[in-house]
Amino acid sequence: MTSQKPKAHSTPHRPSQGNRDFRNRTARGGSSSGEQKNIPRSTAQPIIGNAAAQPAIVLKAGREKSLLRRHPWIFSGAIERVDGAPISGDTLKVRDASGNFLAWAAYNSASQITARAWSWREEEKIDAEFFRRRIANAIAARNHTPSLNPSPVGRVIASPHPSGVGKEGGGMRLIHAESDGLPGLVVDRYGDVLVMQIGSAGPERWRDTCADILQQLCDPVCIYERSDSDSRTLEGLAPRNGVLRGILPESVEVIEHGLHFKVDAVAGQKTGFYLDQRDNRALTEILARDKDVLNCFCYTGGFSLYALRGGAKSVLSIDASGDALRIAKENLSNNGLDATRAEWLEADVFQALRKLRDQGRSFDLIILDPPKFAPTAAFAEKAARGYKDINLLGFKLLRPGGLLVTYSCSGGINAELFQKIIAGAALDAGVDAQIIHQLHASNDHPILLSFPEGSYLKGLVLRAGV
Ligand code: SAH
Question: Residue 1: inside a domain, yes or no?
Answer without folding.
Answer: no
